[in-house]
Amino acid sequence: MAGLGLAAGKKPVTLEALAGQPPRSLSGSPVWAPDGKRFVSIEDGKLWLCDLPSRSKKELVALSAFEAAATKGAPPERFEFENRQVREEPVQWLPSGRELLISAGGDLFLFRLEVGGWSQLTATPERERDPKVSPDGRRVSFRRGHDLYVLDLATRKERRLTKDGSATLWNAELDWVYPEELELGTAHWWSPDSKSIAYLQFDVSREPEYPQVDLTGVRALLEPQRYPHAGDPNAEVRLGVVEAGGSATRWMDLGETRDRLFARFWWLPDSRGLAVERLNRVQDALELLMVDAKTGGARVVLREQDPYWINVRGGLRFLKGGQEFLWESERDGFNHLYRYSKEGQLLAQLTRGDWEVTEAACVDESGGQVYYTSSEASPLERQLYRVSLEGGERTRMTPEAGAHSISMGPKCEYYLDSYSNPSTPTRRTIHKQDGAEWMVYAEADRKALDEYEVLPAELVEVKAADGTPLYARVIKPAGFQAGKRYPAVVNVYGGPGVPPDVQNRWYGAVTLEQALAQRGYVVWMLDNRGTSGRGHKFEAAVFHNLGSSEVEDQRDGVRHLLSLGFVDPARVGIYGWSYGGFMTIRALEMAPETFACGVAGAPVTDFRNYDSIYTERYMGLPADNEEGYAKSSAVQAADKLKGRLLLVHNLEDDNVLFQNTAQMAAALERAGNQFELMVYANKSHGLAHGRSHFDELLVSFFDRCLR
Fold it and tell me: Tens digit of pLDDT for each residue in 113-155?
């Protein structure tokens, strides 16, 4: 095979090119108007309106105008760690469809589409958080400090609905672990009739405080974070209902709150009650409760049980005015759609097969159809389908092979399809309900692809030792020559609970993987057992024993890569962040014959250090699974580590606490194993700044140990 030269007129992807890239172009998710015929989106700091009947798109306003007008209050006394999964909506439609509520700079604004003008609703030193427009459009609710407020839009008068918020009692405010591990992004909800608000109260007094410290100033600054480790007390959570005009809170009787998790909340369509998902602590039993908003009484209408754990899904959609509901469940091993009566009687299973429904995109009740995305075509793809509310034959709506991300309007009349494949950057198109393309919203941005030599990512099927098919992707180095053996780096995540990394989609042009391939490395990535998207049995291989089957699969993947004949078996490295950092260390401990060196970013080194909800879902309580925790501990196996290791961690990582790296370093020292360490001063799990520094560090490390 002849050598592959640099594409004519194109530049190689280098670290300098990577560092010189402008900030990533941000294109927010569509915020659909109530009529489903328009949506707004935030793109590069500007608010745009797309009108679908006229096939037009126009800029409305730059958000910097609101930021400039916002009141600049005094800075907080200390940095508050808030989870990245908290979902505060920066833009919301009023039900009239003529106005938008905008949250910017800690204040609230009302923007009028017809005239383009806006008015400021709040101007306070404190931030107004998590605002929500009432369904009738007359009020806005929000949290200020640790309490819940409402603002009357006609009179601009505020009313404080709760008054007992404190440093340990949080009204309408989430703790850190709930949004991170249950993906609960908000803590209050308007009733459909706009008369009441349901809200959560978090008592975090029993959650331990982790002593985060800012060491970048002249004096160290203590910035404690509420963070429950595995086995620690979680926050005690109560659900209350308060009248929008002001009243005493009515507390719902959800049973014992300690050692229970409350994952999802919905008002019933008639505003008389709420539906609540309740989990036991280790998350292998789920109950759907129907709660009377007046009396607080609750009854169980549906139960789910699993021998491993239950993945909490997006949820429940009411039909026939609340007489029925749509439900997602993995009870047959794969996530599928079911229809129930309000009493909990199963009426129909809408989808079935050895594939997963990944999201219910829209319910067209009048047309008797459900639109959803799934992996039916291939575990590597996401396609849009529709099926009758009675079940039966499915219709595929997206013909192109690849990955489709769908945002459908509230009436299912239009949808936005963000589509890509490994050779095609994301293209965004608007479609009608029947799948016909209506307009192009944004053509694929090919600028970087035209400027740089982007080496192809090839998708590969691998057989695990037990015959299980695994999927990987490989990027061959620039100038690849048959018969030559190259060093290889394995990019790994490997943990449960996140979408698979290997898919038939666009991976980007100017990336670290491309820079590594241009420097002569083979780049490899494989989704091992334990990762999601392949059914519950595939994922449950890690149950009560994290870091074992995953490493075995990664080792099998490298064996397959070596069998292709172009990788030097003595020069294989591995790197990853978070769970991938854990996997990197475990690979050097469990498979030293396979991996010569590794870069472990923000690694969990002992799961007794990690948060309660995630860890106990997969590992159980530490007191009930001492052997599993010990076996999964990278710290306790530090004496088995071979090869060269670079540890990288943010000092104030709010997710994987720095104590993980400190304990690993101490264990390696005790074992007499040399290692390298880089500490960054970010107050986050990822690298908010210092990314270019890290890229250079990683490449330099692999150049030293694999060249």
Answer: 988 899 999 999 999 999 999 999 999 999 999 999 999 999 9
| Mean predicted lDDT score pLDDT of the chain | 95
The predicted pLDDT at position 86 comes to 82
State CA 360 to chain mean position distance: 17
Number of C-beta neighbours around residue 2 at 10 A: 7
What is the spatial distance between Cα 425 and Cα 449, in angstroms, rounded to a whole number? 9
pLDDT tens-digit map of 161-193: 999 999 999 999 999 999 999 999 999 999 999
Active site residues: 578, 653, 685
Beta bridge partners of 236: 203
Contact yes or no for 214/159 (Cβ under 8 A): no
Q: Pairing state of beta strands 91-93 and 56-62?
A: unpaired
CA–CA separation, 611 and 631 (whole Å): 18
Tens-place pLDDT, residues 575-610: 999 999 999 999 999 999 999 999 999 999 999 999
- CB atoms < 10 A from the CB of 669, how many? 12
Using the Cα atoms of residue 357, residue 581, residue 489 and residue 701 in order, give the sign of their dihedral: positive
* Residue 311 near residue 330, CB atoms below 8 Å: yes
pLDDT tens for 403-459 read 999 999 999 999 999 999 999 999 999 999 999 999 999 999 999 999 999 999 999
Q: Looking at the predicted structure, is the pLDDT value of residue 2 above 60?
A: no
Contact by Cβ (8 Å): 358, 533: yes
Do 358 and 379 meet the contact criterion of CB atoms below 8 Å apart?
no
Q: Report the SS3 class of residue 333.
A: coil
In Å, what is the CA distance from 106 to each residue of 72, 89, 252, 366?
A: 8, 12, 31, 40
- Residue 526: in which H helix or E strand, if any? strand 522-527
> CB of 470 within 8 A of CB of 527?
yes
What is the dihedral angle through the alpha carbons of 19, 477, 421, 497, rounded to the nearest 10 degrees?
-70
- The angle, 0 to 180 degrees and rounded to 10, between the axes of the packed helices 579-590 and 549-563 is 70
Helix (H, G, I), strand (E, B) or coil at 286: strand
Q: Which two tokens stand for residue 519?
A: 């420097």
Closest among 676, 705, 649 to 489, alpha carbons compared: 705
In the chain the domains, ranked by start, together with CATH numbers, are 15-21+447-706 (3.40.50.1820)
What is the helix (H) or strand (E) element at residue 561, kind and residue range?
helix 549-563
Sheet holding 403-408, edge to edge: 403-408, 414-421, 424-432, 437-442
For residue 5, what are the contacts with CB-CB under 8 A and spacing of at least 6? 479
Most distant CA atoms of the chain, gap in Å: 78
Q: What are phi and psi of 248, to 5 degrees?
A: -70, 145
Q: Are the C-beta atoms of residues 478 and 4 closer than 8 Å to each other? A: yes
Contact 252, 274 (CB under 8 A): yes
